[in-house]
Amino acid sequence: MTVRKGKTLAVTIQEHMAIDVCPGPIRPIRQISAYFPRLSPTSPGRTGDVSGGGLLSPLLAAGGGGGLLSAMSSVDTSIEVDSCDSDDNTSLGTLEFDLLYDRATSSLHCTVLKAKGLKPMDFNGLADPYVKLHLLPGACKANKLKTKTVRNTLNPVWNETLTYCGITEEDMYRKTLRVSVCDEDKLTHNEFIGESRVALRRVKPDQTKHFNICLEHPPPLPSPTAMSTALRGISCYLRETEQQRSLEERGRLLLCLQYVPPADDGEGAGERARGGLCVGVKRCAHLAAMDVNGFSDPYVKTYLKPDVQKKSKHKTAVIKKTLNPEFNEEFFYEISFSELAAKTLEVTVWDYDLGKSNDFIGGVSLGCHSQGDTLQHWIDCLKNKGKKVERWHTLTNELPGSTSQE
Hints:
Elements: H1 13-21, H2 58-63, H3 65-82, E1 94-102, E2 107-116, E3 129-136, E4 145-146, E5 157-165, H4 169-174, E6 176-183, E7 191-199, E8 209-214, H5 224-232, H6 234-243, E9 249-260, E10 276-285, E11 298-305, E12 314-315, E13 326-334, H7 337-340, E14 344-351, E15 359-367, H8 372-383, E16 389-396
Antiparallel strand pairs: 1-2, 1-8, 2-5, 3-4, 3-6, 6-7, 9-10, 9-16, 10-13, 11-12, 11-14, 14-15
């Protein structure tokens, strides 16, 4: 401001504009929707004077005093809560699929049938949809299954069956199947359309259950406050998990055991003439990832202990870059039935690493001193001579009386 001696107070144009534009504290800019409020049935403005005219003037909104501004704030809140055109109420489409749990083979079959009314994701108003399956909780890459992609449609038909192997009845009780529909983009990353989650306990063994569900948005991520609280307790969590590492699940292994009785009258010449134990390593499922690429290079070793001469080691081929390898290899141990009763079969799964020591993934021990399913498998093998007995086993990161280093 400029003041000259002997003259009245003079104000420049710039100063005058500054005074008029900034008469007080800066207030937030009103949205256009503030001039046309939509009040909820429970809002006090429905019966008050704020919406009496059905239309608010910009002058009233700007100069109506603090009471009117507070009333407008409540109007904004009701708009966010009760608006009908938010993304949460937008239909993402529906998906039909069947679930069947085969108890005999410990496998879960998901037949993805079709989808209807999917949300458009491309510029042409269509999408290139496919379906992904995940078992929760569990490693993403270890149990991800995926259908083929159907191009340029919002009503795709797949009729494709995806199968999970090594699913026990305990898994059916505690795991959840996440079914996601995504749009495939060749030039950019694939886009998420919607998902649904099904608790597997809803599926009865050996009975097909049909689902026709509406796709939903994924659950919201935890808030930063909740994450901070979780991080504060990370040390306690690590101490608890350290004590439970011996029971940590590292994947599944399908084993086939058969005791071959001695051949009569010299028949069946060869190494199996005296009889022995035939161990079939069929496949693994949902193995723990040991490499930086999220996969492993697994192979399996078998021992029949006690092994004083260290001649009982057998080893499968290495299957590269997979968490669900198929081996289909058999190993034979020439041993009498009386000696076998005092033996323990140790099966371990390893990740092959070139130029350094291999990583231990998990293992299982079968014998008369085992417990649970492993003991039952061993007993069934000894009781049913000449018969192949297959069973899935859960791998743990420790074995009784063994080390986790090769």
